[in-house]
Amino acid sequence: MTxxxxxxxxxxxxxxxxxxxxxxxxxxxxxxxxxxxxxxAATYLAxxxxxxxxxxxxxxEWLKTEPITLSYTEKGQHVxxxxxxxxxxxxxxxxxxxxxxxxxxAIVREEMVKIQRDMIKxxxxxxxxxxxxxxxIPNAEVKIFMMASVEERAQRRYKENVxxxxxxxxxxxxxxxxxxxxIDQERKASPLVKAHDAIEMDTTGLSIDDVTEEILAIVSKxxx
Length: 224
Ligand code: CDP
Ligand code: CDP
Fold this sequence. Notes:
alpha/beta; five-stranded parallel sheet; three-stranded antiparallel sheet; 9 helices; 8 strands; binds cytidine-5'-diphosphate
C-alpha cells in the first residue's frame, strides 16, 4: 500500500486552492479540509449575535458556547455551529467582507487550529488555508504556496459569481481581494506567508487540471 502523507496548500484569495485541493484529495482518496470555512463560521456566529468583531474575547466566548465542528460526507465538507449546518450560509458577501478581521485574533486562531490539528492525527489529508504549511502542519510532506495575479483571481471570482447567477462587479471583487490579502499578510498572528520549504506555484494562465496534475506529480515522488 502506498504511504499516506499530509498536503498543505496555502495562498491568497481565489488562487484556486480549494478547487484544486478537492481534486487532489479525490484522486488520492484523501480527506479535503477547508480551514477558511471555519473562520467564515466564526464570523457568521459573531455577526449573528451582533458581537463587536474587534472583540476577540467575546468571539471566543461564543465559540465555546456554540462550537464549530466539521463533518465529511460523499458531497464533501459540512460546517456546523452547534447543531446548525451553516455550510451554505457562510458564503455570503457579509461574511466574506468581515472574515479577515475575525481571523486576525490570535485567541480565535488558536481555537481553530486546535480543531484542525485534531483532524490530522492520521495522515491522508489535503488542507488549505493561509497558515497550514507555516503553522498548522509544519511537518506536512508536501507544501504548496499557490498564487495567481490579482487580475486573474478577480476574473475567476467574477466568472464564478456570474455562473451562479449572482450580480458581480469586477472592480469591486478586485478591491475585496486586495483588501483581504493585505489584512491576511499584515496580521501579527500566523500571517499569510510562504513557508520556507513550500513550493511556489504561479497558476496565472493555468487550468484547474494543469495545476492538479502538477501537484499529483509532486505527491507521487514523495510517496514512492
Ligand atoms: O474566499 P476564499 O476561498 O479565498 O477564502 P477562504 O479560504 O474561505 O478564507 C476566508 C478567510 O479566512 C481568509 O481571507 C483569511 O482571512 C481567513 N483564513 C485564515 O486566516 N487562515 C486560514 N487557515 C484560512 C482562512
Ligand atoms: O480557494 P481559493 O480561494 O484559493 O480559490 P477557488 O475558490 O478554488 O477558485 C476560485 C475560482 O477560480 C473558482 O471558480 C475556480 O473554478 C477558478 N479557478 C480557475 O479558473 N483556474 C484555476 N487554475 C483555479 C481555479
